[in-house]
Design a protein that fits this description.
Helix 1 runs antiparallel to helix 3. It is built from seven helices and eight strands, in the order H-H-E-E-E-H-E-H-H-E-E-H-E-E-H. The strands form two sheets. The protein has a six-stranded mixed beta sheet with strand order 1-2-3-5-7-8. Strand 1 and strand 2 form a beta hairpin. It is an alpha/beta fold. Helix content is about 35%, strand content about 20%. It is globular, with a radius of gyration of 18 Å.
């Protein structure tokens, strides 16, 4: 595949991403996030068992799990606009080097993600009824720009997360998953993975719904 063919391929992928991240596709995004999490845990998931819930919350039901999906994004980030700008750059590009941009990755620990997740969930813990909170399995999609999980494990402080009262709180990224905490009433597959960082060797197709 030459450079022009690669650029055309990237244009198609970006156009698909614009459609996928539209409001109409929100249920599919939530289901794919759940699928990625389950696969990271080593579950051979049948995606037909991951069902959108019409009367949310929760957003997604998988067997006995009631997943409420929350996305951890950069402040003021507008992902739909982000992909539209990317598409404009691709359509103007004559060669792959035209697409290069400054890139400085930042690494964060599980402890830091726990703190950020707690802050993200705080407003919801105050808005939701306590009975509802205790029935929900929160799944955080960690999606900060140019941030990657540090391979060195640092034990997270989950005191404040547990105090919010969720049945369970977990996170998934593009390459890993972690269950921060889970009450005794949470599904067994969550309970047995509490505190165990999961990083599958093959991350291809994690978010697929096929």
């Amino acid at each position: 595949m030459d450079e022009q063919e690669q650029i055309k391929h990237l244009i198609v992928e970006t156009e698909e991403a614009i459609k996928f991240f539209s409001n109409e596709k929100k249920p599919d995004l939530e289901r794919s996030t759940c699928a990625a999490f389950l696969r990271c845990l080593g579950i051979d998931v049948n995606v037909e068992e991951i069902e959108s819930y019409s009367d949310e919350p929760p957003d997604v039901i998988y067997k006995e799990a009631r997943f409420e999906i929350k996305e951890l994004l950069d402040d003021d980030r507008r992902r739909h606009d982000e992909y539209k700008k990317k598409l404009e750059r691709l359509k103007k590009a004559k060669k792959l080097s035209d697409l290069s941009q400054p890139y400085t990755p930042t690494f964060v620990t599980i402890r830091d993600i726990a703190k950020r997740s707690c802050t993200l969930l705080e407003k919801h813990s105050k808005r939701y009824d306590k009975a509802l909170i205790s029935s929900l399995d929160i799944l955080i999609y960690f999606n900060l720009m140019d941030y990657y999980l540090d391979e060195e494990f640092v034990e997270p402080d989950i005191t404040d997360l547990k105090a919010q009262g969720w049945r369970s709180v977990s996170m998934v990224s593009g390459s890993s998953a972690f269950v921060f905490c889970a009450q005794d009433s949470a599904p067994d597959f969550l309970l047995k993975n509490v505190g165990d960082l999961k990083q599958p060797s093959n991350i291809m197709g994690l978010f697929d719904l096929e």
